[in-house]
Write a structure and sequence with these properties.
Layout (H helix, E strand, L loop, with lengths): L1 H5 L4 E4 L3 H12 L4 E5 L16 E3 L4 H5 L6 H12 L8 H15 L2 H7 L4 E6 L18 E4 L2 H18 L3 E5 L1 E9 L2 E10 L14 E8 L2 E4 L8 H7 L2 H4 L6 E3 L8 H8 L4 E2 L4 E9 L9 E5 L5 E4 L15 H9 L5 E7 H7 L1 E2 L6 H4 L3 H9 L5 H9 L3 E4 L2 H10 L8 H13 L9 H9 L3 H6 L15 E13 L2 E2 L6 E3 L5 E7 L21 H18 L1
Parallel strand pairs: 1-2, 1-10, 2-6, 10-22, 11-19
Antiparallel strand pairs: 3-5, 4-5, 7-8, 8-9, 12-20, 13-14, 13-19, 14-17, 15-16, 16-19, 18-19, 21-22
Helix pairs in contact: 2-7, 2-20, 4-5
Organism: Gordonia crocea
Protein name: FAD-binding dehydrogenase
Pfam families: FAD_binding_2
Length: about 550
């Protein structure tokens, strides 16, 4: 610990996740000395971003234009504002400004900034969060989800490598296994951090570590930047802030899409130091969660990133109403599911659909792209058959069942049901009504219309959306059902900040010496997304807000 005490830092960065690395990178570019403090060990450098799929929201890119996608900053900003639904004068004041600034950056400098650092993206642009059905409402009007070649680890790498180089040059010092318990405040100014030294840990990345305290510490610097993430693995905080009036009853069964260290502790610590916390009830959790058959952290969950073809039923076997189709409107679907009084739902699909439409969130679930092998990627994504990671869930996952016919499928669904037993007659009625619409090229079924619309986009037709077919057609079988659970992931509110990532106090003025970036700051301003996210926006929000914090802190 002596080396840290002797290290005269210009800034302390609390958290070594993506936004912390970006802030540190920007500070060291300006020649500043940075002390990075983190409660985990060095193996966890990069934090949650490492486990991500690496999707990035970008606007009017060469990749989009090559695919015939007509995008613009004006269209993207309209989508963002229609999705955000900002309606709070005080709490959304900075969020609105961050939204405009972020969309402008995503439309102009973002791609070049990342490209210069060595990041490359795949040629197919994904169409995520397709919306709620109205042009001026929630959702992406066009595909904007740019997948990083190398997924989350690559997003981390392009910032970690220069930071580690700065460490070798003496500009950066890391204090791992140092848990911040308090911000040092004197007459309203933040002067540094105090906390507990945790016992050394050699756990692998993502594995829960001990909280045994073996000492204490105090570090001081002119600037402190908080970049510690949200509350996704702290289900007590999730439940405490759950918006029952907006999303429905609090789920009893939740699984975790983030490691155990995503605990939200620094939110209360920052608030105690005078930070203004806003939009605590805004959060972004997924309805398509599945239990990981090979977990890394407690209650480890994976999200299915679905194409639009699976039939979505609630726990009672009723079909979800529009716009609650796979991949369209996350919060609307969450509300519809929870309105039944149960915290799970079902996909019914076929072998043909799962082969083409199922993607799994997580860098470890996409080894071909993560390892940057075009040969392996082409073989796994275009070849016939279920991709390897998904096949393992079919074989081992507790949420998956399959059968050659609907009667046997429903019987197996009832074996893993956590609620009512499904009535075969009811499910047959829903499936038959849907399948009857397949006999014509046109349809009154809104989901089938959405599928047809998706296949007008070359990227979806080639690699993402199966050709419409009857779920009961044996040529496309076997039939598959997936029990879908609530997966906790992102915090959309947090510490309010101005456009320099300076923390705003309860008096509406910046707190001297204190900055915040990433998820702990609602990805900028205490809530840049408002009520809804457009996907591919979380990593970008960490980068954009971390960049702002590092640059502003370097200017002093």
């Amino acid at each position: 610990m002596g080396s840290q005490k002797e290290f005269a830092a210009d800034a302390i960065v609390v958290g070594s996740g993506l936004s912390g690395l970006v802030a540190t990178y920007e500070l060291t570019k300006a020649g500043k000395k940075v002390l990075v403090v983190d409660q985990e060990n060095r193996n966890n450098l990069g934090g949650q971003a490492f486990w991500s799929l690496g999707g990035l929201f970008m606007v009017d890119t060469p990749e989009q234009r090559r695919l015939g996608i007509h995008d613009s900053e004006e269209l993207a900003l309209g989508d963002w504002m229609g999705s955000a639904g900002f309606d709070r004068d005080d709490e959304d004041y900075w969020g609105r400004q961050w939204a405009r600034a972020y969309v402008h950056w995503a439309s102009t400098e973002k791609r070049d900034y990342l490209h210069t650092l060595g990041l490359r993206i795949t040629p197919i642009v994904g169409w995520a969060e397709r919306g709620g059905g109205f042009a001026d409402g929630h959702g992406n009007s066009v595909p904007r989800f740019h997948l990083t070649w190398g997924t989350g680890p690559e997003v981390v790498r392009i910032f970690a490598e220069p930071v580690l180089d700065a460490e070798r040059r003496g500009l950066v010092s890391f204090a791992f296994r140092h848990r911040v318990d308090e911000l040092i405040v004197d007459d309203g100014d933040v002067l540094g951090v105090r906390g507990s030294v945790l016992e050394p840990s050699t756990t692998e990345r993502g594995v829960a570590s001990t909280r045994e305290v073996v000492g204490d510490f105090e570090f001081r610097a002119p600037t402190t930047i908080v970049t510690t993430g949200g509350i996704g693995h702290n289900h007590d905080l999730v439940r405490e802030n759950w918006p029952v009036d907006r999303l429905g009853p609090i789920p009893e069964h939740m699984i975790c899409g983030v490691p155990a260290y995503v605990d939200g502790r620094m939110l209360a610590i920052a608030e105690s130091a005078g930070a203004n916390l806003v939009n605590r009830d805004r959060m972004w959790h997924y309805t398509e969660g599945i239990h990981d058959w090979d977990p890394i952290w407690p209650d480890h969950a994976i999200r299915i990133i679905p194409g639009p073809s699976s039939l979505w039923l609630d726990a009672n076997g009723e079909r979800l109403a529009p716009p609650n189709f796979p991949g369209f409107d996350t919060n609307s679907t969450m509300k519809a599911i929870l309105a039944t009084g149960y915290d799970y739902s079902w996909f019914i699909l076929t072998q043909s659909i799962i082969e083409k439409e199922f993607a799994l969130s997580g860098s470890e679930q996409n080894p071909d792209i993560t390892e940057k092998s075009w040969k392996v990627t082409a073989k796994s994504r275009l070849a016939k058959g279920v991709p390897g990671p998904i096949r393992k869930f079919l074989e081992n996952g507790e949420d998956f069942v399959s059968a050659s016919n609907l009667a046997d499928l429903v019987a197996k669904m009832n074996e893993i049901s956590r609620g009512p037993k499904l009535d075969l007659t009811q499910v047959e009625r829903v499936v038959s009504a849907r399948d009857a619409q397949i006999d014509n090229k046109y349809s009154k079924d809104a989901q089938l219309m959405a599928m047809t619309n998706a296949r007008q986009y070359l990227g979806d037709k080639v690699v993402r959306v199966a050709k419409p077919h009857k779920l009961t057609d044996p040529e496309h079988g076997p039939m598959i059902a997936v029990r879908l659970n609530i997966l906790t992931r992102k915090t959309l509110g947090g510490i309010q900040t101005n456009l320099d990532s300076q923390v705003i106090g309860t008096d509406g003025q910046p707190v001297d010496g204190l900055y915040a970036a990433g998820e702990v700051a609602g990805f900028g301003g205490g809530g840049v997304h408002g009520y809804n996210a457009l996907e591919g926006t979380f990593l970008g929000g960490c980068i954009f807000s971390g960049r702002a914090a590092g640059r502003a802190a370097a200017r002093g």
